[in-house]
Amino acid sequence: IQRKKRVFLQGGVQIRHQTNTLSLNMTVSYSLEVANARFHGFSRLLFRWKGSIYKLMYKEFLVFCAVYLFFSVFYRLLLTPRQQDLFERVALYCDQFTNTSFIPVLFVLGFYVNQAFTRWWGQYTSFPLPDNLMMVVSGNVHGADDRGRMLRRTLMRYANLSSVLILRSISTRVRKRFPTLEHVVEAGFMTTHELKNFESLHSDFNKYWMPLTWFSNLAAQARQEGRVRDDIALRLLMDELNNYRAKCSLLFHYDWISIPLVYTQVVTIAVYSFFAFCVIGRQFLNPEKGYSGHRFDMYVPVFTLLQFFFYTGWLKVGELIINPFGEDDDDFETNQLIDRNIQVSMLAVDDMYQNLAPVVKDKHWKNSLFSVPYTQSTAAETFRPAFKGSTFDMRMSAEDLEIHQPTDVPVNKQYLLPRSSLGDGLDDLQQKTKGILRSGSLPYLMDVLTHHNEEDEAVETKTDAPNNKKAV
């Protein structure tokens, strides 16, 4: 544990702030391990601890086992035979309610987790990323001098400041990093004059939108100075700014409007009451008394423990993803996203502004047809025929190939066998392998059977004669 003491000046009074730096919680990623489906693929993930279901619910699991063990020992060793009979009747009665038809745990819990996951994904897609905005600023706010550079950097600093302010309001990680606005000033997102302007405007609501208003005013000023060359470019800046503001606002409303508390309470009560009945109803009773379903005394309720693990684990998943702006293992890395956004923004609008490599002829300038090389491990992909559609290789009968003509026209039957992609693929394979297929490509078959009557030919000749004269 590292302890850092820092002194900040606020209103002429020194405030000592002590920060405790603990072990970092990073989002658990296992995408590379499941890139290819293989034997024992998902099973390898079962032995992880960080971000696992074991870490999330092992305390609840131990409590359930301890309570179950207490009633088991109490029933077997501490009760008299008459008291055991009473306990057995209570256990049989409670076992009736462990049926899911009495307490619809699956339905209530499944629907709740589905809603929580939809909300979690919506919050992820609503995170304000400045990528589109910084591209528009870099391409439409001109000037290689200090004034142009200052305008571009200030515009993107305002955008990032707005995201920092909104994340301070919804994320515990960001709040601990920037507990006061003085911390935001010291981090470089805001100047002291901007802080005074920010605090001088009184509002009972969150003022995360103020830097975006500064952005719009500064963009209009840049248009007056000619740094933004036309109104179309200014409109593009405003459109991207509004999209960025909409995401900030959506995050704020996600934090403000939660899933109704009554629904969360219903799900929690349903799961906990179900396993409260299981603690007594799933006890192994004396098999000598011949109770239905109690022929064996296994001491350890394996399937009940599995059921507790699945249902309670599902409830903990809902608890985990209902608010991803906390400090759990799989919560969003908001601080790292802030660092990434401000760094990328400044690189795009400052260091990369008009910093282009010389425009030269590419490697394939003189070749109209060329192929991109493969590595040795991917060379086999060159032998695969190109995909041209799922129906390209569809087999057809002779009736399918027959061309239908209207009844008043002489019948001409044509049977066309279309060339399949298999033939094309073999031709490509023959060219690439330089003669591996010596027999050539598949033949392209066309059999046209035309039967004309002599009278019809004579009629056609007569009708065509005047036209031929006119043509001459």
TrEMBL record:
One of its GO terms (cellular component) is chloride channel complex. It comes from the Eukaryota. Keywords: Cell membrane, Chloride, Chloride channel, Ion channel, Ion transport, Membrane, Transmembrane, Transmembrane helix, Transport. InterPro entries: Bestrophin, Bestrophin-like. It is found in: Cell membrane; Membrane. The keyword Acetylation does not apply. It holds the Pfam family Bestrophin. Its main location: membrane. It catalyses: chloride(in) = chloride(out). GO terms for molecular function: chloride channel activity. The keyword rRNA processing does not apply. It is a multi-pass membrane protein. The chain crosses the membrane at residues 56-78, 90-113, 262-284, 296-314. Belongs to the anion channel-forming bestrophin (TC 1.A.46) family. Calcium-sensitive chloride channel subfamily. Forms chloride channels. This is Bestrophin homolog. It comes from Gambusia affinis (Western mosquitofish).
